Structure formats: C-alpha cells, structure tokens
Amino acid sequence: MKLKIIRSKFLEGLKSVQNIVAGKGSLAILQNVLLEAADSYLTMTTTDLDISIKVKCECEVISEGSSTLPVKLLFSLINKVAEGEVIIDIDSNERAVINAGSTKFKLAGMPCSDFPKLPNGNDSNTYKLSKQTFKEMLRKVSYAASQDDTRRTLKGVLLSFKNQKLTMVATDGRRLALVESEIEFPVTAEKDIVLPSKAVNELQRSISGEGDIEVIIKDTQICFILDNINIYSKLIDDKYPDYQQVIPKETSQCISIDRQLLLDALDRASVMTMDEAHSTKLIFSNGKLTVTSAASDIGEASDEVIIKYAGETIEIMFNPTYVMDPLKAIDDDEVTININNGHSPAVIKCSIPFLYVLMPLRIS
User: Fold this and answer.
1) Closest to 10 in 3D by CA, of 105, 116, 81
2) In whole angstroms, how far apart are CA 309 and each of 253, 281, 303, 331, 357?
3) Among residues 75, 71, 111, which one has the least CA distance to residue 91?
4) Would you say 352 and 326 are in contact if contact means Cβ atoms under 8 Å apart?
5) For every one of its 364 residues, what pLDDT tens digit does the chain have, with 9 covering 90 and above?
6) Is the dihedral of CA 98, 104, 109, 111 positive or negative?
7) Rounded Cα–Cα distance for residues 19 and 254 (Å)
C-alpha cells in the first residue's frame, strides 16, 4: 500500500477519527486507525466497539491496500511536520515508512484482518433531514440527559420517528427537554431508538456545513452519513420511559418574559448559589419577576425583570443552571413559562415545537 496525500487533508481526517479509540487495557487493534487506499481516496476508520467513525480523504493512490497504524501517535507526528505532500508506504509486514518533506518516520502497524468489521445497511430503515436541523435539535435537548452511569437509558437521547415527525427527548428525572421537526418517511419506518451520549457528542462535534444527513437504522445499530464522514453507533436497547407522563396536561398561568433578560438575571443571581442548596427563588407577581438567591455566611443577590403577567403571586425554587440551560439552547427573543403553583412542574416554551419541563426544588 502506497499513497501521497496533502498534509492538511490527512491531518483533518485524523483529527476527525482520533477521539474514537478504546481506552488503555483494551485490545491493541482498537488503538489503531484502519487505513484503506483505493480509487483516489484514503479511508480512515476508528472504533471502540460501541461507536465507530469513518472518514474519506482525497489522495493519490500509487498502490492500493490496507493496514492499521496507532492513531494517536500518527496524529501527533503529522501535526508536527510542515505543510506539503506526505508519502505513506506500508509493506506486507505492516511496517510503515512516512515521508513528509525532510522528515521521515517509521511505524509498526497491525494487519487490517484484526480490525472489527462495520455493520452493513441492508434491510434497514433510512431517514433524511437537514444537517443543521438535526444538529440544532441535539443542541436543544442533549444537556438534559442524565450524567448518572447507573441510569443507562437516561444517559441517551430518544429519537422517535412517528407521525411524519422526528421527536427528540432527553431527561435526567428532574427535567425534560423535547423538540420536534417534520420529516418524511414511510409508515413502516416508524421507530423509537435511544442514542447513547457518546454518539450524541460525536455528532455535535462532526456535523458542519449545509446539506442533508442520512440516518440508517438496522436492529441495534445506527449509521449517520455526513458527506465524507460516516458515524456508526450501537443503540441503547432498553425501553425509554414514557416521557408524556412528565409533561403537565394543563397549567393555569402563562407568563411571557424576555429570554435574554431572564438568562442574565439568573446568571447574576447564581453567583450566590455555591453552597449545598444551589437554589434560586423566582417570585412572579403583577408585571414583575424577582430573582433571589442567598448563600449562608456569604450574602444574597436579588434582580428584577419585567414580565407579562397579571395573576396571583407565585414563589418557586429552581436550580438556576437547570433554568439557564434551555434559555441558552433556544434563540427566541421571548419565552413563556407555564405553571400552576410553586410546587408543580414549570413548562418553558417558545415559538418552535420545543418544550422544557422542570421540577421545582423543595427546600426546608
């Protein structure tokens, strides 16, 4: 196997795949990148067995072939050489000689026969939507997923393909974020799947530019096709909780408020929430929201925001970070907070098909 490739293209591809490798103590082959040279392209693949990523780069193929090399070391070496042409020559014993200008490296590789095979897409369900729409949907919900390793299902994001819509949901049991977008697919392709957080993070890092993303689901595997990048992931096979039970069916009060003003007030008040309680009180009264927080032996903070509300006074306690997270993820100038009283869940909505349910804190 021998090829020539521009250093910047090679480095960009390695940068895209180097994060998906298994940890130390795992199989040595999982520390390597699979290199395949054919048809004027170099294809690079890495995997940790749960998630895999494949990137295709243009190159000059002198002789076709495949091998694997340690990806972290390879990235470090290519990152340090000058811009220009890189020549990679790998012999039948998996010994690689890499020439980049005046620099020459020799690396020991491993046979590609040891590298795990990627799943194929036969007999699968396929969906297509805008890359930016998909990335924005992930951004609007992913922060609400659980960080608790014991709650495996809640660490993922639900993707529900039903009724000509893609619904994404994330929850950690204390809050829930939901966003929807209309897409076209056959009724036979209706499906619910749970995408692991590792795949969510990799997608948010990898999706860029215009165009569409193709989503292919087969059994317990999913594949995302993004121009020259393919991302494969195992799915969480547990059933996602019935999130509809968490969403209040009715709320008696609807409060309109400037999103940025609320975000700023919460941000200022949260400085005083460094103690164990980490709570902020929101007091909704006629035309005014008062945001207060206090830390024992340190001090207290108070801020006021004009709101559209003429009901009775409602006092409610929240973790301020949990209120700020959705406000950072949406772009509307104005949001509504729908609520019944100071002890019931609050629902934040905006002009798009998005909602965020937040449970209040009970502080003694």
Assistant:
1) 81
2) 8, 17, 17, 22, 20
3) 111
4) no
5) 999 999 999 999 999 999 999 877 788 999 999 999 999 999 999 999 999 999 999 999 999 999 999 999 999 999 999 999 999 999 999 999 999 999 999 999 999 999 999 887 666 899 999 999 999 999 999 999 999 988 889 999 999 999 999 999 999 999 999 999 999 999 999 999 999 999 999 999 999 999 999 999 998 999 999 989 999 999 999 999 999 999 999 999 999 999 999 999 999 988 876 655 578 999 999 999 999 987 767 778 899 999 999 999 999 999 999 999 999 999 999 999 999 999 999 999 999 999 999 999 986 5
6) positive
7) 45
The amino acid at residue 83 is: E
Q: Would you list the DSSP string of 192-215?
A: EEEE-HHHHHHHHHH--SSSEEEE
Q: Could you tell me the two tokens for 257?
A: 């408020």
Q: How far is CA 19 from the centre of its chain?
A: 14
Q: Which residues contact 41 (CB under 8 A, 6 or more apart)?
A: 56, 57, 58, 59, 61
Q: Measure the CA dihedral 89/91/95/97, to 10°.
A: -20
Q: The tokens of 57 are what?
A: 């780069």
